[in-house]
Amino acid sequence: MEKQITEYASGNEMAAIAIRQIGYDLMGYYPITPSTQIAENLDVMRANGESDLIMIAAEGEHSAAGICYGAAVGGGRVINATSANGLLYAIEQFPVQSGTRYPMVMNVVCRTVSGPLSIKGDHSDIMFMLNAGWPILFAHSVQEVYDFNIISLKLAETVRLPVVVAYDGFFTSHQKRRCLRFERDEAVQSFIGPKKEDYPFLDLDHPITVGSYMNEPDLINNRYQLHLAMKKADTLLPELFREYGELSGRKYQKVEGYKWEDAETLLLLLGSSYDTAKEAVDQMRDQGKKVGVVTLHTLRPFPDREIVSLCKNAENLLVADRQDSYGAKGGNLSLEVRAAIQRAGSEKCGSSGQRIEAETSDNGTNSNNMYGSEVHIKNLVYGLGGKDFFVEDAVKMVTWAENPNSPDFAYYGVTKADSGKEKPAESFKGEAMAEGTNRFFAPLSAEKTQLGATKAEEKDGKVQISGGTLNATAAIPKRLAPGHGACPGCGIPVNVNLLLRAIENPVVLLFQTGCGMIVTTAYPRTSFKVPFVHNLFQNGAAALSGIAEICYRKQKKGEIPPGDIIFIMVSGDGGMDIGMGSALGTALRGHRLILFEYDNGGYMNTGYQLSYSTPKGARSATSHVGKEQYGKPFFHKDMPQIIAATGIPYVATVAESNPMDFIKKAAKAAYYAAATGTAYVKALSACPLNWNDKPAAERRVIEKAVDCCYFPLYEVEKGKTTLSYDPEKMGKKVPVLDWLSMMGRTKHLQKEAYADIVKELQEEVDRRFARLKARAENPIL
C-alpha cells in the first residue's frame, strides 16, 4: 500500500485534489452551483503554483463541453465539472465525445433540474446521462469522490470512453469528512499510467478525420463498437477496483451492501442516503428486524447481475429514487432494477412481486441458481429538491415496503396543501381579490402608472424626452416592491427601479437566472406587482420575444385590450455571457422589447466567479491572486458595442450616479420598444459583497467608474453615437486606478508588482473612450 495522509475536506475539495495529483492538461468549465467549488479550488492551486492546469472559463456549459472535447481530440487529459441545467445545456456534446471515443472525466455534482429553479441536490440531472454512452461511477462518500476520480481516468483511457463521476450536491459535495489521499502524486500517476493515443490527431504526417458523416450500416457498427466498449468497461471495473484496493487499502465493488445477506427487506438507494440508511438498519436490527441496504457504485455499465446477487434472499425490495421518470410509474433506478431482476429469469408474482429464479449470463445460460425466492419490488420517489433524508425516513420506508397494502409506486414526503382559505390582506379590504389568495399589494394598472412624468416624441430622426425630473418620476408606483432579499447596497433593485420610473406603460418582466430573481421570488412570495417570468439565463431573450409576439397577436385578434405593453428582460450576474447568443438573435430579429443588463462584473449568484465583464486583474473565485496569477487575465467585454453591431434602433449605458440621464434613456428605450424594435440598456450595478467595498459608498464607486471612463455614458440611436457625459470636458477624469483602489477585489493592483496590468487596463480604457469620442464626432457613426 502507498503511504496516505488525512484530509478534512468536502467532496468538491477532494475532487480538486485528485485532479491536481493526476496532472490533467486542461479544464473547460462554467460555474454552476454546486459543482463550482471544484474549479475554484483548482484556480487557487494554479495561483499558488501548485498546478499548471490550463483552465478555460467558457461563456456557458455548452461551450465548456466543446472546449473539453476539442482538447481531448487534441490528445490532452481533460476534466470538466457541472450540475443540473448546465449538464442539460451541454448534453448534445456528450454523445459526440463517446461516439468518437475520446476519453475524459467529468464530475457531475447532482442537483435538481429546473424549473422551478432550485439549486439543491437530487438525481434528476444525472439520469439524463444514462443514454449518452459514458460510464457513470456514483460516489456516496467524500472518500469515494477522491478514489473514483482516480479510477475513472484509468477506465476512460483503457476503454476509450469519457467517464462521469457523480455525487450528491450539497450533501457529498459540501459536507467535510476525514478521508485519505496519497501523499505522493507519483503514486496516482503511476496507477493511471502514461497517456496513449492510437491515432494522434496532431500527427500531421498521418492526418485523420474525426466525426465523419455516417449512414447505415456504418452508424450501427459504430454504435455496436460503443456497446462493446461499455461491455469491456463492465468486465474491467472489478479488476480496476481490485488493483486500486491493493494500492489504497479501500476495496470497491460495483454494488455495495450492508447487512444484506440475511435481510428479508432491503432498501436500495443511490448516493449519500446510503450512509443514513445504514444507521436505520442498525436501529431496526436491534429491534430484531432483518433489514439491509444496498447502493450502486456504477450506473453505467448497469450492474444487473451484482444487484440480483445481493437481493436474492430478500422478500421485499424498496428502490428509492431521488428523481422520477414521469409517466413511467417509477424513477429510472427502480425501472432498471426491475429490468435486471426480470432479465435474471424472473416470473411475475402478482402486482407487486417478481420471482428471482436464476441469474442469466450474457450467453443465455444460468450462471447462478436462486430458486424459490420471491421479491416484492416497490418504488418511492423521495428527497427531491434537496429534501433531507433522515434515519426515521428510512425506517418509514421499510414499514411501507413491508405493508402488503401499500402501492408499488408513490411519492414520499409530499406536503399536502392547506385546504383553508387565507383571508385577504387587511390593507386591501376594499379591492376586488380572488378568493383564497393573500396579496401583499395590489397589481398596478395603466391608470396608476400613466402620470405624465415623462413624455417621448420623435423629432428630426431622434426621440426627445420632456419631463423626467426625479421628483416627477418618483410618483410612478414601484413595480418592484421593497420586500426583497437583496444584500445591503446591492445595485440590482436600485437600477431596476430607476429604469421603471421612466416607463409609464404597463410592463411585463422576464428575469434571467441570477441574484435579481433569486432575492425577489422566493416561493411562495414575490416582490413584483406586474407579470413576471423567470427563464434560464442562456435563453431569456428568446423566451421574452415569444411572450411579446403572442401578446401582439392577441391584441390584433381582440382577445386582450389594445395598448402599449413594454416587455423587459432583466439580466445580470454573467447572464449576458451564457445568454449572449439568445440576446443577439433577439436583437437581430428586432422584437419590440428592452434588454436591460445590470452589470455587476461577475457570476454573483454562484459566489463571484469571473465573467467576461469582470475587470482585467480583478480577484474572483476563479481568478485568484498568487505568485503565478494576478486575477482575471483578459479585458472586460464591451457588450453595448456588440449589441450595437446588430443595428437595433437604441443602445444606451446608464449609471445610478447620473439618475437624470438614466431616466431619460430608459424613457427612450421604452419608446423604441413600443414603436420600433429592440432596445438595449446597460447599467453598472454595485455588488458590495463581492466587490468587497462598503454598501453606503456604492454610488461614489459607480461615479468613479464613470469618471475614469471604464464605464462611459453614451447612446447609439439609429446607428448614431452620442456621448452623454465627457469627464474630460468636465475636468473630472481620473485614472482607472482611482476606481480600482475603492474595491477589495482590485485593491491589490495598487502594488508596484501589478503596475504593468494597470497600465494595460488604462490604455485599453483610454482606447475605447477615444474610439467612442471619434464615433460621436462622426456624422454617420
Automatic annotation (TrEMBL):
Residue ranges of every copy of the Thiamine pyrophosphate enzyme TPP-binding domain listed in the record: 524-681
Alphabetical list of Pfam families matching this protein: PFOR_II, POR_N, TPP_enzyme_C
Stored InterPro entries: PFOR_II, Pyruvate:ferred/Flavod_OxRd, Pyrv_Fd/Flavodoxin_OxRdtase_N, THDP-binding, TPP_enzyme_TPP-bd, Transketo_C/PFOR_II
Domain Pyruvate flavodoxin/ferredoxin oxidoreductase pyrimidine binding residues, every copy: 19-236
Keywords on record: 4Fe-4S, Electron transport, Iron, Iron-sulfur, Metal-binding, Oxidoreductase, Pyruvate, Transport
Sample GO molecular function, one term: thiamine pyrophosphate binding
All residue ranges annotated as the Pyruvate:ferredoxin oxidoreductase core domain in the record: 263-344
SUPFAM superfamilies: Thiamin diphosphate-binding fold (THDP-binding) (SSF52518), TK C-terminal domain-like (SSF52922)
Gene Ontology biological process: response to oxidative stress
Record family assignment: Belongs to the pyruvate:ferredoxin/flavodoxin oxidoreductase family.
Name assigned to this protein: Pyruvate synthase
